[in-house]
Amino acid sequence: MTKRHWRAGFLRGGIELRQLLRTPKELFGHLSNVVVALVIAGYMSDDVPGTDTPMAHLVLAGFAAYLLFQIGLINLPQMLVTEREEGALLRLRATPGGIPAYLIAKCLLVVGTAVGTLVLLLATSALLVNGPLPSGPGDWLTLLWVTMLGLLAVVPLGAAIGAVLPNPREALALIMLPAMGLLFTSGAVIPITSMPVPVQQVASVFPLKWMAQGLRSALLPDSAQAAEVAGAWELPMVALVLTAWTVLGFLLAIPLLRRAARRESGSRMTARHRKAAQSGAMPA
Hints:
Layout: H1 3-21, H2 24-42, H3 55-86, H4 88-92, H5 98-128, H6 137-164, H7 168-185, H8 197-203, H9 207-219, H10 235-263, H11 266-279
Helix pairs in contact: 1-5, 2-3, 2-5, 3-5, 3-6, 3-7, 3-9, 5-6, 6-9, 6-10, 9-10
């Protein structure tokens, strides 16, 4: 990527962030996720089995990871599919360096949204339900790099998924079920050691498990390591797995977005709109 791509991407990303802040409906969607996490944590009264760590703290740390995961791997593909339907990818065909700049802009939008949501969750949970916060500079540094690397692991992957999903009406259904399955099997809201070993092994392939584990290491005391599969935070493994997903995501995202853009045409877009109008999904 050239400097021109980065400049165009950051300019576009800044515009999209400002549009998000001016759209109450989208902001409410992110705020509602924070409220759900706080409500669930507020009802937790037990400790994590084998530790003196409140279960509410584990749930909040897990939800922090899931919110990052959701924004990158659920919200982003929906945005891409919707914009493809509206002709955004078709316009990118006539823009030099359009795909790389577009992907940079989406990364900036997702990072800004995710970091804002994470800060809101941690701040409100600390004030309202005595939620966890990093206890020292080392924990704050861990929170920072796990958040950034976790987003890098899921944003390009979300872009790749968005490039191949059929339409906005099917996108949510195709993504939400696997994502919810990962939420409950990756140790985000339930200690992963309570899961059967085969489930633990499958969950360890995906980034959410390692994002949640990395954030727990930043937010929970070291005594909570007793609830981890290896009895340790395994931060080098967290970094390794998330880096692997980052590389895989970028290798998939750019060619798939280019392929989706090449396949776009005015006739294809018109046909999709006509079909949607006939099914009642949009006005005729």
